[in-house]
Amino acid sequence: MMKVMNMVKIMLKIIVKKVIIKCINIIVMMVLNMKVKMMVLNIICISVIVRLVKIIRMIMNEMVMRVIKMVVKIMMIKVIGIVIVIIKFINVIVGLVSITPGHVKLD
Q1: CA distances from 47 to 3, 53, 58, 73, 103 (A)
Q2: What counts of helices (H) and strands (E) characterise the chain?
Q3: Digits of tens for pLDDT over the chain (107 positions)?
Q4: What φ, ψ does residue 101 adopt, rounded to 5°?
């Protein structure tokens, strides 16, 4: 009877070891599978981020170009305004000179 009990114990130990090894293998495979999934997710995230950065660069370049165009337009308006003021000033000076006494207007 003792031999049978020992045999059963040994068999149970072997079965438990096999079950534990199977469980460990399953867990390792799950972890590896999750790591692979995480790697794929990381690659997808990185590619999405790279695409977003490209789009943001394009938008920023477009925005910078718009700002530069606006600044150039404002500068042109300022220059035109200064030229108009100078022309009016010259007209006023010429008008004052032609009115001064001693000059004869031929009308």
Answers
A1: 65, 10, 17, 39, 82
A2: 1, 0
A3: 567 667 777 777 787 777 777 777 777 777 677 777 777 777 777 777 788 888 877 877 777 788 888 888 888 888 888 888 888 888 877 777 666 565 555 55
A4: -65, 150
